[in-house]
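Protein in question passed on here:
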Amino acid sequence: MSSSPRIEATAGNSDLVRDALSLARESHRGQIRETGSGEIPFIEHPLAVAERLAEEEFGEEVLTAALLHDVVEHADVELSEVARRYGEEIADLVAALTEDETIERYQDRKEEHRKRVAAAGPEARAIFAADKMANVEVLREAYDIEGEEVDAALPVSLDLKIYVWELDLEMLFNESPGVPLVDRFADEMTGLWGQRAAEARASSC
């Protein structure tokens, strides 16, 4: 189970974050995510994303959007409901973080989303960076266990996933230079590249 002490503490002092945490838990109840070496409750992901933003001292509106960033895309929550409960500013952030599922091809869907996030402003990009960083962290943990075999459990190939993350990182470097969350995302990617290089060396011996 992921640790989210800052979010739990913030929820104790913020009605907005407390309500978002409740809605996220309710919306993602029973959902799971495939990590590459097993399944985890889906709620661990938005908690991890929000926790990383809390570590960088983002405000309650950004933390609320981070907790809710997957409820439209992956649960039965309408964007209009997010706007009604939390306001247009938070709804706009959630909208920016929601992929367009009508775009079938993975690369095309990710490209459209990347461009939309780039144009959505610094707060949306910060959530995006925390989202990607959390995803890479989970994959790195799986890679430690499975190595290249992690590929078999992923919805797309490991090479393609890493390629898309590299494009995401490039966009963030261009649009949000010097932002700590972007640098932390880059550090996680560097770690993943190192893991793969070490695995390749071991396989060649």
In short: The mean pLDDT is 96.
